[in-house]
Amino acid sequence: MKKKHILSNPYSMSWQIISSDQTNSLLESLSLEIKAQSSPSIRNEEKKQKIENPDTHRFSRIHLILGIKKIISEIDQISSIFCFIDKSTEVLLEPLIFLGREKGVKVMGMEINEHCLSFRQIIGIDKLVAFALPKIHCFCLSQNIIEQLPGIEMNRTFLKGVIKTREIKIVKNNKNNQKKTNAKPQPKA
Description:
By secondary structure, this protein is an alpha+beta fold. The chain has a single domain (8-158), classed as CATH 3.30.1330.30. Helix content is 40%, strand content 24%. The chain has 7 helices and 8 strands. It has helices at 20-38, 54-63, 68-73, 90-102, 114-123, 140-148, 174-182, and strands at 2-8, 11-15, 65-66, 78-85, 106-111, 130-134, 154-158, 162-168. It has a 4-stranded mixed β-sheet, with helices on both faces. Helix 1 packs across helix 2, helix 1 (20-38) runs parallel beside helix 5 (114-123) and helix 1 runs antiparallel to helix 6. The longest helix has 19 residues, at 20-38.
């Protein structure tokens, strides 16, 4: 028997997330600006139906930086990063948040709620976990809200490590040993 020692629970992560009201006002403002600027006809109340508008999708994809990989590749052109944080996205977003803080970018975490889901519909990506605004952008109303929001602070709380011991059985393979003993010696050159 051989014993293997495993260190578990080396640290825990605590996330500071902007409030639900702050999330709602920011996403409402961004949604209105995207709709208003993507197509003038959307402004009419009669045409504000729950129909996916390709013009809205096209506009938002040009003026927002969508997705973790895209944000990382364009980090030097970004003013603010927004992360939809839940249990399934924490690990994915951790490197992005550290990079944003290192580059002096304002990073905000938001809990997923109805406003987040409707914002994803406007963007046209149901599983969007992060988006960013470039330094030069056209969301003037939202910018006023963003400037008043605190940036996310991510703190690591180190806990005492828990050592778990596992017993590993070592099984000898007899067939391999027989093959080695039956092998013919190579003739000397």
